[in-house]
Amino acid sequence: MRKMPFSRNGFVNIDNPKWSSTTILRILKDEIYTGTLVQGKVTNINYKLKVPIKHADEDVSRVAHSHDSIISKNDFDLVQRVLKVRTKSSQSNKVPHLLSGLVVCDSCGKNMMIKTVKHKCGNYRYYYCPTGKKNGCISPSMLRVEKLEQEVFRQIREYINEIKNIVISLKLCH
């Protein structure tokens, strides 16, 4: 049996919680609690390579009533419908960002990702280092998407103007 992280006074340690939203979501989506044995969702190429391969739902083997259920199949199906309705689809993922794959962290060199931060006066998008301080990035940076794009456009316009000037000076020389 797994030990719970208790503090000296006997209460559960909230600094190291075992129940996260991800854990609860995984439990809500797991069909095994309905008494159905599910096998073959994921396999590995071979035992040396730890690369999981997900299989299509129709290729997964299911055995109904293989053990006592904790939740009825009807309740489980209802929860799945509610989760499907409540799942938010990020609009930002549907359109690729202008500089996707081109912006890297100065400190660690990893590709930066975009996150949207909600403020009173509107939403702001930032490029941020996914590595972060916890995972070894010395000074992870955050850049406003709009400001970075404006700077890139400014430099492109500057570069185009330089090329125009070179073309004009070449025409004058010949």
TrEMBL record:
Please list the GO terms describing molecular function. Answer: DNA binding; DNA strand exchange activity
Is DNA-binding a UniProt keyword of this protein?
yes
Which Pfam families does the record associate with it?
Recombinase, Zn_ribbon_recom
Question: In its keyword annotation, does this UniProt entry include Glycoprotein?
Answer: no
The Recombinase zinc beta ribbon domain sits at 98-157
List the keywords (alphabetical): DNA recombination, DNA-binding
Signal sequence region: none
* Domain spans labelled Recombinase: 9-84
Output this protein's name: Recombinase domain-containing protein
Give the taxonomic lineage as stored in the record: unclassified sequences, metagenomes, ecological metagenomes
